Structures are given as structure tokens and as C-alpha cells.
């Protein structure tokens, strides 16, 4: 069975991108060809946004489609690495980058420990 899509989280990302670009719901709705009421329903997750409308939103907001899928199981893993994490790391000082590297090493070690079966004697 395929995982469910959380349209509320997609809507939150649409809203965030819209606000970042300085559009009102009405302005963005006009650009992509829907009403501001429909935009409101998309942003609150009351309406399941279609793929074609999500593509229009991506284009109109000059935002990668993967941004809207960030909180879904359908996001391409590489997208997180390439955009979100890389952008954040670009603002770090060298000493912070060393700390981040150590934290990642610890998380990877923990992940490997979690994979190993636990034996109880």
C-alpha cells in the first residue's frame, strides 16, 4: 500500500512560498487560473491540490516542485541534500561546519546501531 499524501503540509508550503514571493491568495490565484477561495482551500489542506495545479504553482512561484513535497514520502532524497541542507550549510562558519560534520557522524552511527537486532539474555 502506498503512503498517504499530507495535503495540509503541501498547503503550508504553498502558503509559505506565496508569502515569500509577496503575493496575496487572489493575486496567485489569478496567475494560475483559480479563485482566491480555492487557493485558501489548498493552503489549509481542505482541497487536494492536483498535480497540474501544483506544477503551475511551482512555475508561478519559481519554486522547485520538491519544495512542496518536502513533508511527504514522495520527496526525492537528493532534493533535501541539494537545496535545503546545502543552503543552510552555506551560512555556517568553518567551526560550525566541523560541529555539523561530527553530529552527522554520530547520527549515522546511531542509525547503524538501530539496524542491528538487539539480543536480550
TrEMBL record:
Keywords: DNA-binding. Residues 14-68 form the HTH cro/C1-type domain. SUPFAM superfamilies: lambda repressor-like DNA-binding domains. Pfam families: HTH_3 (PF01381). The keyword Transferase does not apply. This is Helix-turn-helix transcriptional regulator. It comes from Anaerobutyricum soehngenii.
Amino acid at each position: 500500500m502506498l503512503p498517504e499524501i499530507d495535503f495540509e503540509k503541501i498547503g503550508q508550503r504553498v502558503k509559505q512560498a506565496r508569502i515569500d514571493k509577496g503575493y496575496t491568495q487572489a493575486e496567485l490565484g489569478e496567475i494560475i487560473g483559480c479563485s482566491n477561495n480555492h487557493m485558501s482551500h489548498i493552503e489549509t489542506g481542505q482541497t487536494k491540490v492536483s498535480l497540474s495545479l501544483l506544477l503551475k504553482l511551482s512555475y508561478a512561484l519559481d519554486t522547485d516542485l520538491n519544495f512542496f513535497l518536502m513533508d511527504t514520502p514522495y520527496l526525492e532524497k537528493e532534493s533535501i541534500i541539494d537545496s535545503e541542507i546545502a543552503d543552510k550549510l552555506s551560512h555556517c562558519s568553518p567551526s560550525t561546519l566541523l560541529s555539523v560534520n561530527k553530529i552527522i557522524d554520530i547520527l549515522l552511527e546511531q542509525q547503524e546501531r538501530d539496524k542491528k537486532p538487539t539480543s536480550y539474555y
